[in-house]
Amino acid sequence: RVGRHDNFFELGGHSLLAVQLANRALDLGLKFSAVDIFQAAVLHQLASRVQIDFHCRRPGLLTVRAAGSQPPLFFVPTGYGDYSYVLTLIKEANISCPVYALPWPSFNDLCPLTLESIAAHVIASIKEIQPQGPYRLAGYSSGAILAYAIAQHLLNLNDVVSFVGFIDVTLPAAPSSISDAQAVAEVIFEPLESLDDNTFEVLEKFARQSSVPELLEKARQIGAIVPQLHFGDHALKCAYFHRALRSYRVPSLPIKIYQFYATDPSLDLPSRRGKSSVAPEASSPMRGWDRILSAAAVHTVPVPGNHVTMMSNPENRKALARMLLRALNSVAHFK
């Protein structure tokens, strides 16, 4: 039995479960983020941070801020499927527009499963809120490339896209050739603080010749994870999304993007795979987007911290929020 004095992490929680918990709570109108769980892991402490709004849920999106004088801002999830980061970021910004988070749709109904088909599905939810442009989109980490695909689809519909904000989003120089199971090992298991290097190495090797369900079963057998409701579903969604991401051929679009890049290219945790260097595109302020857009179309904005701490560190997050607000105000005349 779980009580008000129990600690989330002492009960076996970890970063992935924190993301799942925050996202599922948002679906129920309980507003808190994965960052809140890390900062207040005991249940009664976390309860003091929860905002309740049972009327904010709309099909296909979550209302983070309901009112404002400027056009809405729509955020997409990270490559981890996390959209709770939007809450902590927007708390720091005195933003003058409605803000919505766009969870991943059910991938079971999408055929073919491509980033373009995901974007088309998400746009239906966007247009229920805002039938006409100008549209403003943003996202954090690799999942934010979905925002670019949404912009592509909107432009194909002859809509105006006035803002695309990338929070440290790298465009890889070459498409990845890893399998779905390897993607799950990389996206879900590699960042787990509770997983020792030897156990991760076992899973990484097993992923090279296994399916996602087989990899998850192997992880359970060796004690890497405990059976969790919806863990497998979330892992499959991550795999499907990264499959779509790998197959996406990024076009050049007639838009300007804002790249809020982390000034420290390192990560908090050393790579388990022994990578000693950062890819050139990941260390460039433009993060590789100048390969498909002109340098003048990529507005770079430095943010203190690395890819993780620019969002998790309160001071860095406040700086990011200020810079995001400044960028949004600079395009407000498009409304």
UniProtKB/TrEMBL annotation:
Every Carrier domain range: 1-54
Name of protein: Carrier domain-containing protein
Organism: Sinorhizobium terangae
Top-level taxon of the source organism: Bacteria
Record Pfam families: PP-binding, Thioesterase
Keywords from the UniProt entry: Phosphopantetheine, Phosphoprotein
